[in-house]
């Protein structure tokens, strides 16, 4: 694909026209208070694997509405002292997979907490966390589940799970709660921005080609999925346009980014039709902390910087720990 979005000079100054709901903060404060009314009950069970360089724990904790969420907690083998903890969120359609699939952060000396995504894990990796909440009429996928009601919208549950994942990770004896980072790619990058806007004491946020940014523009400028799900839904549910976009405003990372309180390393790719670069720049340009950097991959699509960007994250993070 050729570059289809704004030129880079315009991207660097672009600001979203997404309108923040006046009760945005109250909505999220109430949502998290409701979730915290349930016992976090974080459980870490050692897992026997053939891996010699890391120790892995099977995790379960209470997320939105007390629903039990799975994850993996992985540390360098034999670790005895608390370590900086990297909480990672997963891309769209994926699940936590198997313990040996994500070893980078533990291999670099961190405690790594990987949150399973409720209801996902049926596309490119396996998941173990059901979403017990149904929804009304929706397009196949996750982006339109409950889209006409902010209280029932799927990502209200997932973002809340993400905040609770940070809280759960911090309860493990090998996690240094004062040195907590959130990161992820695509949907995982979007969740890291949202969680970064809701958890005030993170030391760093590293969203890679993030999803859920500048939603009104994203839905209109790309024909790629998952954003196409919203257009497909509204092509048959024509009277629901205002309600749908009214709901999405409570989950737009442009508004979470404005509340970012930690240094951030973003990435985007100029050929990315899945998470168009202007939508990523919308969140980056409005990010709330002055120490923010964005890496731009001129000739890549949604794969972004791949292993090169992973190496960059590994080099960038220690300065904040």
Automatic annotation (TrEMBL):
Substrate binds at residue 92. The active site is at residues 186, 272, 302. Residues 121-141 are annotated as: Disordered. One of its GO terms (biological process) is polysaccharide metabolic process. It comes from the Bacteria. Residues 1-318 form the Acetyl xylan esterase domain. One of its GO terms (molecular function) is carboxylic ester hydrolase activity. Gene3D superfamilies: alpha/beta hydrolase (3.40.50.1820). This is Putative acetyl xylan esterase.
